[in-house]
Amino acid sequence: MLQQRVVERGGAPALRPDQQEVGAGAQRRRAHPVPTDHAAARGDDRAGKSPSIHIGQITGPAPVFLVSSLTSPEGRGGGRTQPGRAFMTVKGVFPRRRPPAPSAGWWAFTLPLALMLASDYKLRSRDVDNAVGGSADLTVLVEIAVYGAAALYLVWKFGLRAPRRRTTGLLLAAWLFCGYVAFSALWSPFKSLGLVRGVQLLITMLVAHTVATRATPADLRKLAHIFVGIVLVSVGIGVAHPFPRTLHTETRFNWLYVHPVIAGVYLAVAILLVVGYLIRWNRPEDRLWHPVVYFGALVVLTGALVATGTRGAALGCAAGLLVLLATARGPKGRIDVIVMGAAVAVLAVLAFSDKILAFVSRGETTEQLATLNSRTELWSLAMDAFREEPIFGRGLGASRGLFLDSIGLGGGHNAFINALVDNGVVGTVAFAALLLTLGFVLLTLCRHRTLRADAGMLLGIFGCFLTDSMTTEGLAAPANVSSVWLFILVAWAETLRRQGGDPLPAVQRSPAETVVDAAGWSGTTVTASAQIERAAEQP
User: Could you list the residue ranges that cross the membrane (predicted)?
Assistant: First the structure.
């Protein structure tokens, strides 16, 4: 009776057993709805409107299953057929192992890298006085042109319009910080430098926001691997052709005219990315290279980081590795950190204690080590400058030139002190809010098994930056590798959040419920119909 009612209300008549078997096979092969993120990334207006298939329920247009009898290659001569099986030939010498992942386009991983390289990779050395004074040479003009081209491309491709989805708290915190820092350039004592850096910071945030709302995890995996490849090529350039070094960097490794401190940050981030993909034993599909390649890259990058003599980056990399291993693999990773970390620490102290002490001291005197290479004196002067303008700060770029005459150093050499001097209490609160929000979001994402590998890797990079920011100001200053990577972390976290967390557990349904849902009946209607039928059968 129930099956008869389903047919009368518009349901399809029951199929024969052979038709049901072939139709189910065709449904499993051909019912592949287009993912929403894939359609949104390529600009399809039908994103989210494709038919979705669930257990016992089909929404959208009624599917039509075509059953064809295809002749197998062995039976072409004899007319032997196998219904429902397709034989495909692969063209090309190197066929793909899997179909290409959905992507928003080349811009999603090219523009952030272009901003990073234009800011740090230089072919000439320049005095701090010329940089603070605002004089522009060919290298500066090329850097400005790269930032301008990135902004123009995004405006040309996507236009300037209101966001299509609600802005999250993380993106809002990032925009508030960037907006205030750029606005503070109006009262900076070095207006030319401040205005240029402020515009660069806003363009960086524009790129990060576009990546956060349109990119896919595959795009960010490409970005990470291309970044590691660029750093490996840079190490090769530094070994093959050492550029002239200054008096303080004669014994420290670098490439081009990149300062060893900046080179150390590049190497530390690359090491964390390599380790983050190397330990994904349960998700090999996330790797783009063979594990042997990752291991070889790890050896080269670690040796280069030690050769730079950058203690802050090395300490940050060690802290980032601890955070990464403790979060990227869940509770098992925490046990590995406790066991392996203790063993490696004891072995390193016993076998390489002399080399570790030499790396830490770096040939400096006891007085220099006590003052952290004159950083404590600089921080005392910075706090005096902060007390003069405590609320709104002295303006963007002020810390680059305030201490040149008294101590000969530019910048605050500490991200939080740099934020206090340049942006005051208001800017420092905005900076702290951004960091706290980013850390909270990454910790939340680590709770999901499907997102834990990426979120733990990002949390390790975030921990590396926080540790390194104790001796460098890059995290709070625009147009450098630390600043650009901070906003890449924001964009990556938002991309992971758009993917969703762990799927809900499947609910086992009875065959009767499956038939009812397919016919469009509600539970109340079926119950009432069954009661009426039983009442009619009673005498």
Answer: 101-118, 138-156, 168-187, 193-211, 223-243, 255-279, 288-306, 335-353, 425-446
Which residue is it, tokens 């092969």? 29
Q: What is the pLDDT of residues 342-358, one digit of tens each?
A: 666 666 666 666 666 66
Taking CA 105 as the corner, what is the angle to CA 104 and CA 109, rounded to the nearest 5 degrees?
Answer: 95
What does 259-326 look like in DSSP terms, one character per residue? -HHHHHHHHHHHHHHHHHHHT-SS-GGG-SS-HHHHHHHHHHHHHHHHHHT-HHHHHHHHHHHHHHHH
What three-state secondary structure class fits 25? helix
pTM tops 0.90: no
Q: Which residue has the tokens 């065709």?
A: 26
Three-state DSSP class for residue 81: strand
Phi, psi of 453 (to 5 degrees): -65, -50
C-alpha 126, offset from chain centre: 32
Q: What φ, ψ does residue 281 adopt, rounded to 5°?
A: -70, -35
Question: How far apart are alpha carbons 155 and 432 in whole angstroms?
Answer: 30
Judge whether 37 and 212 are in contact, CB under 8 Å: no
What is the residue type of 483?
A: S
Look up residue 7 and give its two tokens.
């047919």
Torsion-angle region of 261 (φ positive above 0: left; ψ -120 to 50: alpha; else: beta): alpha
**Residues constituting the chain:** 539
Contact 375, 469 (CB under 8 A): no
- Amino acid letter at 308? T
Q: Write the pLDDT tens digit of every residue in 156-184.
A: 998 877 666 678 999 999 999 999 999 99
Answer whether 116's CB lies under 8 Å from 270's CB: no
**Can you tell me the distance from the alpha carbon of 340 to that of 115, in angstroms, rounded to the nearest whole number?**
38
